[in-house]
Amino acid sequence: MRPIYRGRNVPEAVRKPPVHTVAGMGTTATHCAYCALQCAMTLTADAGGRVTVGPRDFPTNRGGLCQKGWTAADLLGSPERLTTPLLRDDRSRPFREASWDEALDVVADAISATQAAHGRDAVAVLGGGGLTNEKAYQLGKFARVALRTKNIDYNGRYCMSSAAAASNRAFGIDRGLPFPLPDLAETGAVLIAGGNVAETMPPFMQHLTAVLDRGGALIVADPRRTATADRATLHLPVLPGTDLALALGLLHLAVADGHADRAYIHDRTTGFDDAWRTAAQWWPERVERVTGVSVAAQRATVAQLAAGARGRGAVILTARGAEQQSKGTDTVSALINLALALGLPGRPHSGFGCITGQGNGQGGREHGQKADQLPGYRKIDDPAARAHVAGVWGVDPGELPGAGPSAYELLESLGTDGGPRALLVHGTNLAVSSPRGHRVAERLAALDTLVVCDVVMSETAALADVVLPVTQFAEEDGTMTNLEGRVIRRRRAVAPPPGVRTELEVLTELAARLDCVAAFTADPETVFDELRRASAGGVADYAGISWDRVDAEGGVFWPCPSADHPGSPRLFADGFPTADGRARFVAVEHRPPAEDVDAEHPVYLTTGRVLQQYQSGAQTRRVPALAAAAPEPQVEIHPDLAGRNGLADGDQVRVVSRRGDAVGRVRLTTTIRPDTVFMPFHWGGDQAVNRVTNPALDPISRMPEFKVCAVRLERVGTS
Ligand code: SF4
């Protein structure tokens, strides 16, 4: 195994259970600032306030950290850190520093004036999948009872929404992994559809390496032979946007080659016949023509998964490659159908899961930031859910707004007739992470008021009227829910710089200024206790999880409905949380991408992440070691395609779609299909590939089609 996957050797002292120390000095046990693996780490602050990171043993990362984790503390004392509120009366003028009182008064006055003139829904909120559970919960409550607006959604819409929609309709629950991650190491075969964990969350690879070390199979479907695919026993180089056809073909072979688990299908599922009627049309040769994956590779995939199912087990995982499509929900459903046909969900060391991306992508989608949701994964249009949550909040259920639009639709409506005139942004750099970036910038510019809470001057903050400086991971207490559904503790290791506040404080202060009748507090543990009550009885039931318990047990899996409940590390062993206790096959049909190649735009573009950067890059681009390692976007191009376009390694290339263009540096590689280019999305300005991507939305999840659109390549120069 490469050292980067394992991190440095872990001293015995930091393998011990978490210790918490006084903020500002000593060593504090916490978790990483970034992705959903939430690797365990220690933060040690010296007398001078310098903070160093150490690895800590935990079931998910087993002492490993990636380069982002090792450098996570470097942003704490960064000169680019925002430490005072910033205001401007006119966007043509520079920001000026302001006191917190003045800034909060300006925001509250703008909210009041906007709502008085244009109605409650004229103020909108966008949250983020990196917010703690407490902040995500408080933000949803603030929108519904302080602003009383329906217009709230979050950037997880761009991340996990297709996986969530498909999991809900098949299993009746949306928990990314329905088993602890170490279970993966015990299985016999793993298929990953559209995920590159070797770069996005390197310590995850330890679990896959364990599968390989025992002679198991690792199959990766990806247009690129990524670092993960490079370790696989089988790589399926699927054409971008055709994962659904591939999944239908795999189900076809599973049945046709006699691998379907008929007893499981009969006893534990519904809907197989309808799903099979569609899959029956996807014979292997047709699938090969559409996807580019050979018949032999399709057959080997099914055989290896079936052998695993008969032996130690088999697991099918999806990630953004399969999900960030205008048919992402159906693609995930097709892969769930395959898992059900092989009899995997609920079996030991087997199952189906979706790899969550953002740090609190799981918890962030459970507690009310979503447009159609109340805490506990309750539906906002369910009268019983409204009554329960309104009771906890001390308001009339009739006063709660209904469902609002999804994130991209909300952005499209900003500043339009009848659309929101003011926007509050928390924990997301949507100017870089949203598709069709020019259009999003236009809509943000059309607002009367844009308020951004952030730790640095992100591209979105730079467009704002008010910027409020808030705490980072090492400066705050709270909980996160990792990719396994395990609730873990984020602990404060150092005091924030003077002038920086938590978003819980910001929301509490604003609620008071808006004369909100519901109670708000800036104390995170009190917020969590209220979250527990609000989630009680919901799908994502946290009622039995307390901070003390999380501290004592090192994490608790939801659902956990009472203090004496052990938590739920493994789901589905005894049934599915559906009306009849059965999982549902969903009949789905392949369709082409929303935009296909043509003479003017003859190349497929797919996007994703690189090891040294995280999401929009607002934080990681400001960490010197990461910026040095990955200073600019590299456009991966096959030499054959480069030759046809007059491009050489190191050239600057403009990637042009019908919506816009972005510039990156050519990296020639034979690890990508000759009809496809790849560009990472961590940079802003003219390097922002999301100026190019297609906002075509999945009809169910409202996920934009980040993973495939048509482009042409133009050489810009050699430097
Ligand atoms: Fe672990 Fe993700 Fe942090 Fe890397 S970025 S150390 S994989 S939590």
What would you say about this model in short?
The chain is built from 24 helices and 30 strands.
How do the helices and strands line up, and which of them pair or pack?
Elements: H1 3-6, E1 26-31, E2 40-45, E3 51-55, H2 67-70, E4 86-87, E5 96-97, H3 100-118, E6 123-127, H4 133-147, E7 152-154, H5 161-171, E8 189-193, H6 197-200, H7 205-213, E9 217-221, H8 227-231, E10 234-236, H9 243-256, H10 262-268, E11 269-270, H11 272-279, H12 284-291, H13 295-310, E12 314-318, H14 320-323, H15 328-341, E13 351-354, E14 373-374, E15 378-379, H16 383-393, H17 407-413, E16 422-426, H18 430-433, H19 437-445, E17 449-454, E18 466-469, E19 478-481, E20 486-490, H20 503-513, H21 524-535, H22 547-553, E21 556-557, E22 583-584, E23 603-608, H23 624-629, E24 634-637, H24 639-644, E25 652-656, E26 661-668, E27 676-680, E28 694-697, E29 704-705, E30 709-717
Parallel strand pairs: 6-7, 6-16, 8-9, 8-12, 9-10, 11-22, 12-13, 16-17, 17-18, 23-27, 24-26
Antiparallel strand pairs: 1-2, 2-3, 4-5, 4-18, 14-15, 19-20, 20-21, 23-30, 25-26, 25-30, 28-29
Helix pairs in contact: 3-20, 4-20, 4-21, 5-15, 9-12, 9-13, 9-15, 16-21
The protein binds iron/sulfur cluster.
Iron/sulfur cluster binds next to helix 2.
Keywords: 4Fe-4S, Iron, Iron-sulfur, Metal-binding, Molybdenum, Oxidoreductase
GO biological process, one term: respiratory electron transport chain
Organism: Jiangella alkaliphila
